[in-house]
Amino acid sequence: MKTAFIVRETHGHWIGDFAAAVRASGWRAELVTEPLDDAERAALSPLVDGFVVVEDVRDVAAVADALRDRDPAAVLTAAEGIIATTALIAERLGVARCPASVFTLAHNKFAVREKLAEAGLPGPRAALFADPAEAAAIAARVGLPAIVKPVNGAASTLVRTASTVDELVAAYEVLATRLPENPDARYHRPLPGGIDPLRVFLVESLLDGPEYAVDVLVRDGAAETVTVVGKPLIDERKFELGMVCPPFGLSGERAGAIRSAASAAVLALGLEETVAHVEVIDDTERGPVVVEVNAGRPAGGAQPALLKLATGIDVTAEAVSLALGTPPPARGTGLPVPVGYLVVYAEGAGRLVRVEGTGEVADLPEVLDVVTIVSPGQVLTDDQEIYAVNVLVAGFADADDLAALHAEAAKLVRFELEES
């Protein structure tokens, strides 16, 4: 029986889903992980067929050596911070399905901007921001308002909006102060070209238009979009509070243009036999503009459940089949009504003790399912989007209905945090 090795870095709801998809393909699923405590091992043991414990999952040579004698047929992950590392391990073992260099490029947001521009695709004006003294010059080049973010960030970590030069300077200082404290190892390693992600940030012009999400499957050189998901509920603090499929008021023509933009971006980056989660803003002047390409993984949180409800397509199973090189999984039929996805975040920062109120949310008549992504002991922070509790809903009429549902769910869910 073939064995797929799933590499994990930290807690991840996706691990069980990936392991189940591997097993459904008739393969063994073993977990590659750093040392586990007894509670973690007990929780993960039912999900996988074995463990490979290493000191550092980012140590490509050490992990490859640990797996070489186990006859690996695939090495995969959906952990954003180690997708490129995992691809390098797969390359060393001769089981890679997409070149690791593509994932390395995709994790450098400025390099992505340049690559898409070379392909003739529209994008926001962008510049690297290495010195607060350059703020006025960057504002003139990029325009204000602008977005400031880590060059290799994910989960909207420390993303800030600046409307003035002073706010641009303040955003730089916030990132330069708080990013070094972030435990994610990606921020503590230089990017290709010698870019230090702890002091060099990305500034992009702010686009004007509704935002959408598109998961793209790349198989046999062709890109297939799963569907278009709208983001009608967005506030200044969190980039997404609620999503809906199909999007409210989106014409078939605009949906087609958004799908085309996502497919073109993924192919321009050179992705092969993998999946990508793409964010697109339909700008009032430029049309659909790709603002984010999360290469090598499907949508996060419970969004795969939303996509399956809406389309019948299991993007997790699709992503695993692409990584394994197995035939595409069977597809079902989506629901005939709009479905929504609400995200409830914890307020404040600290170590999670418990989550309460999810049962009360599940009892609401519009709720199809409640999925808690976080677990006790996990450290939560306001520096990034952590989809703590995810609520799948149906039976709403419009964005106002969806907003009311979000407000009701957020009121019921309670997080107990302690100082970490």
From TrEMBL:
Q: Does the keyword DNA damage apply?
A: no
What are the GO MF terms of this UniProt record? ATP binding; ligase activity; metal ion binding
Query: Gene3D superfamilies given for it?
Result: ATP-grasp fold, B domain
Cite the entry's keywords alphabetically.
ATP-binding, Ligase, Nucleotide-binding
Q: Where is the ATP-grasp domain?
A: 113-324
User: Transmembrane region positions?
Assistant: none
Q: Which Pfam families match?
A: ATP-grasp_4, LAL_C2
Nucleotide-binding in keyword set: yes
Q: What is this protein called?
A: Biotin carboxylase
Q: Which organism is it from?
A: Amycolatopsis rifamycinica
